[in-house]
Design goal:
With 278 residues, this protein is α+β, with helices and mostly antiparallel strands. The chain is built from ten helices and six strands, in the order ααββααβαββαααααβ.
Length: 278
Protein backbone atom coordinates (compact mmCIF):
# COMPACT_ATOMS: atom_id res chain seq x y z
CA UNK A 1 0.00 0.00 0.00
CA UNK A 2 1.36 3.42 -0.95
CA UNK A 3 2.02 6.14 1.58
CA UNK A 4 -0.95 8.23 0.46
CA UNK A 5 -3.32 5.25 0.54
CA UNK A 6 -2.21 4.63 4.13
CA UNK A 7 -3.14 8.22 4.97
CA UNK A 8 -6.58 7.87 3.40
CA UNK A 9 -7.27 4.83 5.59
CA UNK A 10 -5.73 6.50 8.64
CA UNK A 11 -7.85 9.66 8.43
CA UNK A 12 -11.00 7.74 7.46
CA UNK A 13 -10.65 5.74 10.67
CA UNK A 14 -10.21 8.93 12.72
CA UNK A 15 -13.28 10.51 11.13
CA UNK A 16 -15.52 7.66 12.22
CA UNK A 17 -14.80 8.59 15.84
CA UNK A 18 -17.18 11.18 17.35
CA UNK A 19 -14.51 13.34 18.94
CA UNK A 20 -14.21 17.11 19.23
CA UNK A 21 -10.49 16.87 20.01
CA UNK A 22 -8.16 16.98 17.04
CA UNK A 23 -5.89 13.90 17.39
CA UNK A 24 -2.74 15.96 17.00
CA UNK A 25 -0.43 13.43 18.69
CA UNK A 26 -1.60 10.52 16.53
CA UNK A 27 -1.34 12.62 13.37
CA UNK A 28 2.11 13.83 14.34
CA UNK A 29 3.29 10.26 14.99
CA UNK A 30 1.95 9.19 11.60
CA UNK A 31 3.82 12.05 9.92
CA UNK A 32 7.04 11.00 11.67
CA UNK A 33 6.51 7.43 10.42
CA UNK A 34 5.77 8.62 6.87
CA UNK A 35 8.54 11.18 6.41
CA UNK A 36 11.13 9.95 8.94
CA UNK A 37 11.82 13.46 10.26
CA UNK A 38 11.27 15.58 13.33
CA UNK A 39 7.67 16.88 13.23
CA UNK A 40 6.14 19.65 15.32
CA UNK A 41 2.54 20.76 15.72
CA UNK A 42 2.62 24.56 15.38
CA UNK A 43 -0.14 26.98 16.31
CA UNK A 44 -0.91 30.65 16.58
CA UNK A 45 -4.11 32.23 17.89
CA UNK A 46 -5.74 35.44 16.78
CA UNK A 47 -4.71 37.07 20.08
CA UNK A 48 -1.03 36.50 19.29
CA UNK A 49 -0.41 33.51 21.55
CA UNK A 50 1.71 30.88 19.82
CA UNK A 51 3.73 27.74 20.39
CA UNK A 52 4.59 24.27 19.16
CA UNK A 53 4.80 20.62 20.22
CA UNK A 54 7.80 18.72 18.81
CA UNK A 55 7.67 14.99 18.22
CA UNK A 56 11.04 14.52 19.90
CA UNK A 57 11.82 17.11 22.61
CA UNK A 58 15.36 18.45 22.37
CA UNK A 59 17.01 18.93 25.76
CA UNK A 60 17.43 22.58 26.60
CA UNK A 61 15.72 23.82 23.43
CA UNK A 62 14.03 26.13 23.00
CA UNK A 63 15.06 28.22 25.96
CA UNK A 64 12.60 30.84 27.26
CA UNK A 65 14.73 33.56 25.69
CA UNK A 66 14.59 31.77 22.33
CA UNK A 67 10.80 31.66 22.54
CA UNK A 68 10.77 35.41 23.08
CA UNK A 69 13.06 35.80 20.05
CA UNK A 70 10.66 33.67 18.00
CA UNK A 71 7.83 35.97 18.96
CA UNK A 72 9.85 39.04 18.05
CA UNK A 73 10.96 37.71 14.69
CA UNK A 74 8.19 35.28 13.73
CA UNK A 75 6.96 37.50 10.91
CA UNK A 76 10.40 37.10 9.29
CA UNK A 77 10.25 33.30 9.09
CA UNK A 78 10.75 32.42 5.40
CA UNK A 79 7.68 30.18 5.25
CA UNK A 80 5.42 32.77 6.87
CA UNK A 81 6.75 35.35 4.42
CA UNK A 82 5.90 32.95 1.60
CA UNK A 83 2.34 32.27 2.77
CA UNK A 84 1.70 35.95 3.43
CA UNK A 85 3.14 37.12 0.11
CA UNK A 86 1.60 34.50 -2.16
CA UNK A 87 -1.67 33.75 -0.37
CA UNK A 88 -1.10 30.13 -1.40
CA UNK A 89 -2.04 27.86 1.56
CA UNK A 90 -0.54 24.69 0.11
CA UNK A 91 2.46 23.02 1.80
CA UNK A 92 5.81 24.59 1.01
CA UNK A 93 9.41 24.26 2.15
CA UNK A 94 12.02 26.75 3.31
CA UNK A 95 14.42 25.78 0.53
CA UNK A 96 11.86 26.75 -2.11
CA UNK A 97 11.19 30.25 -0.74
CA UNK A 98 12.81 32.94 -2.95
CA UNK A 99 15.16 35.13 -0.93
CA UNK A 100 13.75 38.29 -2.50
CA UNK A 101 10.40 37.90 -0.69
CA UNK A 102 11.81 37.18 2.78
CA UNK A 103 12.16 39.95 5.34
CA UNK A 104 15.76 41.03 6.10
CA UNK A 105 17.67 38.44 8.17
CA UNK A 106 14.76 35.96 8.00
CA UNK A 107 16.97 33.10 6.82
CA UNK A 108 19.69 34.08 9.30
CA UNK A 109 17.24 33.96 12.23
CA UNK A 110 16.01 30.52 11.18
CA UNK A 111 19.58 29.26 10.81
CA UNK A 112 20.76 30.70 14.13
CA UNK A 113 17.81 29.43 16.19
CA UNK A 114 17.19 26.08 14.49
CA UNK A 115 20.48 25.16 12.83
CA UNK A 116 22.28 24.12 16.05
CA UNK A 117 19.60 21.51 16.81
CA UNK A 118 19.22 20.26 13.23
CA UNK A 119 15.76 21.55 12.32
CA UNK A 120 16.54 24.42 9.94
CA UNK A 121 15.19 22.73 6.78
CA UNK A 122 11.40 22.84 7.20
CA UNK A 123 8.27 21.92 5.28
CA UNK A 124 4.98 23.33 6.56
CA UNK A 125 1.58 21.63 6.17
CA UNK A 126 -1.07 24.15 7.26
CA UNK A 127 -4.52 22.66 7.83
CA UNK A 128 -6.34 25.57 9.50
CA UNK A 129 -5.82 29.17 8.37
CA UNK A 130 -7.81 32.16 9.62
CA UNK A 131 -5.92 35.39 9.02
CA UNK A 132 -2.84 35.35 11.25
CA UNK A 133 -4.21 32.41 13.26
CA UNK A 134 -3.20 28.97 12.08
CA UNK A 135 -2.68 25.30 12.89
CA UNK A 136 0.04 23.45 11.00
CA UNK A 137 2.46 20.56 11.10
CA UNK A 138 6.08 21.36 10.33
CA UNK A 139 8.47 18.66 9.13
CA UNK A 140 12.04 19.55 10.05
CA UNK A 141 15.56 18.28 9.47
CA UNK A 142 18.92 19.67 8.42
CA UNK A 143 21.25 19.27 5.46
CA UNK A 144 19.05 19.41 2.38
CA UNK A 145 15.63 20.58 1.30
CA UNK A 146 12.68 18.22 1.11
CA UNK A 147 12.23 16.44 -2.21
CA UNK A 148 9.53 17.06 -4.82
CA UNK A 149 8.05 13.68 -3.85
CA UNK A 150 7.84 14.77 -0.19
CA UNK A 151 6.15 18.02 -1.18
CA UNK A 152 3.66 16.25 -3.44
CA UNK A 153 2.71 13.80 -0.68
CA UNK A 154 2.35 16.64 1.85
CA UNK A 155 -0.01 18.43 -0.55
CA UNK A 156 -2.12 15.29 -0.91
CA UNK A 157 -2.27 14.78 2.87
CA UNK A 158 -3.23 18.40 3.61
CA UNK A 159 -6.92 18.16 2.51
CA UNK A 160 -7.34 15.06 4.69
CA UNK A 161 -6.07 16.95 7.75
CA UNK A 162 -8.20 20.00 6.89
CA UNK A 163 -11.36 17.88 6.68
CA UNK A 164 -10.52 16.16 9.97
CA UNK A 165 -9.89 19.53 11.61
CA UNK A 166 -13.24 20.93 10.44
CA UNK A 167 -15.08 17.91 11.81
CA UNK A 168 -13.35 18.11 15.19
CA UNK A 169 -14.15 21.82 15.49
CA UNK A 170 -17.83 21.14 14.80
CA UNK A 171 -17.93 18.36 17.40
CA UNK A 172 -15.95 20.24 20.04
CA UNK A 173 -17.54 19.89 23.45
CA UNK A 174 -20.09 17.29 22.26
CA UNK A 175 -19.92 13.77 23.64
CA UNK A 176 -16.30 13.90 24.84
CA UNK A 177 -16.54 10.29 26.04
CA UNK A 178 -17.61 9.09 22.59
CA UNK A 179 -21.00 7.84 23.88
CA UNK A 180 -23.00 8.95 20.83
CA UNK A 181 -26.64 7.79 20.50
CA UNK A 182 -27.78 5.57 17.65
CA UNK A 183 -24.27 4.45 16.79
CA UNK A 184 -23.56 7.52 14.65
CA UNK A 185 -20.04 7.97 13.34
CA UNK A 186 -18.17 11.20 13.88
CA UNK A 187 -18.92 12.33 10.34
CA UNK A 188 -22.63 11.50 10.65
CA UNK A 189 -22.82 13.35 13.96
CA UNK A 190 -21.22 16.43 12.41
CA UNK A 191 -23.72 16.34 9.53
CA UNK A 192 -26.64 15.98 11.97
CA UNK A 193 -25.42 18.90 14.09
CA UNK A 194 -25.26 21.11 11.00
CA UNK A 195 -28.69 19.83 10.00
CA UNK A 196 -30.00 21.14 13.34
CA UNK A 197 -28.73 24.58 12.38
CA UNK A 198 -30.86 24.48 9.22
CA UNK A 199 -27.88 24.10 6.89
CA UNK A 200 -28.50 22.84 3.37
CA UNK A 201 -26.60 19.85 1.99
CA UNK A 202 -24.44 22.23 -0.02
CA UNK A 203 -23.64 24.35 3.07
CA UNK A 204 -22.86 21.22 5.09
CA UNK A 205 -20.46 20.09 2.39
CA UNK A 206 -18.73 23.47 2.45
CA UNK A 207 -18.32 23.39 6.25
CA UNK A 208 -16.95 19.85 6.23
CA UNK A 209 -14.90 20.09 3.05
CA UNK A 210 -16.79 17.31 1.27
CA UNK A 211 -19.02 17.08 -1.81
CA UNK A 212 -22.80 17.52 -1.72
CA UNK A 213 -23.12 13.95 -2.98
CA UNK A 214 -21.13 12.68 -0.01
CA UNK A 215 -23.34 14.71 2.33
CA UNK A 216 -26.43 12.96 0.91
CA UNK A 217 -24.75 9.59 1.53
CA UNK A 218 -24.18 10.50 5.18
CA UNK A 219 -27.77 11.77 5.45
CA UNK A 220 -29.12 8.46 4.14
CA UNK A 221 -27.04 6.55 6.67
CA UNK A 222 -28.05 8.66 9.64
CA UNK A 223 -31.73 8.60 8.62
CA UNK A 224 -31.52 4.80 8.65
CA UNK A 225 -29.81 4.71 12.05
CA UNK A 226 -32.31 7.16 13.56
CA UNK A 227 -35.29 5.37 11.99
CA UNK A 228 -36.57 8.46 10.16
CA UNK A 229 -37.37 9.40 6.58
CA UNK A 230 -36.49 13.08 6.26
CA UNK A 231 -34.61 16.09 7.61
CA UNK A 232 -37.40 17.35 9.90
CA UNK A 233 -37.82 14.00 11.60
CA UNK A 234 -34.05 13.70 12.00
CA UNK A 235 -33.84 17.10 13.69
CA UNK A 236 -36.70 16.19 16.03
CA UNK A 237 -35.00 12.94 17.05
CA UNK A 238 -31.70 14.77 17.50
CA UNK A 239 -33.39 17.19 19.90
CA UNK A 240 -34.93 14.30 21.83
CA UNK A 241 -31.54 12.60 22.10
CA UNK A 242 -29.88 15.82 23.26
CA UNK A 243 -27.57 16.06 20.26
CA UNK A 244 -26.39 19.70 20.20
CA UNK A 245 -26.06 22.07 17.29
CA UNK A 246 -22.65 22.38 15.68
CA UNK A 247 -19.95 24.11 17.67
CA UNK A 248 -18.32 27.22 16.29
CA UNK A 249 -15.76 27.46 19.08
CA UNK A 250 -12.07 27.88 18.42
CA UNK A 251 -9.91 24.74 18.47
CA UNK A 252 -8.82 23.45 21.87
CA UNK A 253 -6.09 25.27 23.77
CA UNK A 254 -2.76 23.61 22.94
CA UNK A 255 0.09 22.58 25.17
CA UNK A 256 3.79 22.38 24.46
CA UNK A 257 6.34 25.20 24.26
CA UNK A 258 4.26 28.34 24.23
CA UNK A 259 3.97 32.04 24.88
CA UNK A 260 0.64 33.59 25.88
CA UNK A 261 -0.49 36.84 24.25
CA UNK A 262 1.75 39.75 25.19
CA UNK A 263 -1.16 41.60 26.77
CA UNK A 264 -1.65 38.77 29.27
CA UNK A 265 1.89 38.65 30.60
CA UNK A 266 1.92 41.73 32.83
CA UNK A 267 5.67 41.92 32.83
CA UNK A 268 6.20 38.29 33.84
CA UNK A 269 9.80 37.17 33.49
CA UNK A 270 10.56 35.29 30.28
CA UNK A 271 11.68 32.27 32.30
CA UNK A 272 8.09 31.74 33.40
CA UNK A 273 6.58 31.86 29.95
CA UNK A 274 7.75 28.57 28.51
CA UNK A 275 5.30 25.69 29.02
CA UNK A 276 7.36 22.48 28.83
CA UNK A 277 6.14 19.48 26.89
CA UNK A 278 4.62 17.03 29.32
Amino acid sequence: MGRYAEWVDFTADLMTRPSGRFPRTRVRSKLVETFQTQVSWNWKNADGAFGFEPSHPIKGWPSPSELVLWERHMAKHPLLCWFRRTGDPRPWSVGRVPRRIVAPHGFDILRDLCGPVGVDEQLSIPYELDGEAHRAYVLARTGEDFSDEDLDLARRIQPLLAALGKQCTLLQGAYPTGAVPAGLTGRELAVLQLLREGSTARAIGHRLGISTRTVHTHLANLYRKLGVNDRLQAVMVAQQLGIPSASREAPESPVGYALPPAAARNGTAAERLAIPVG
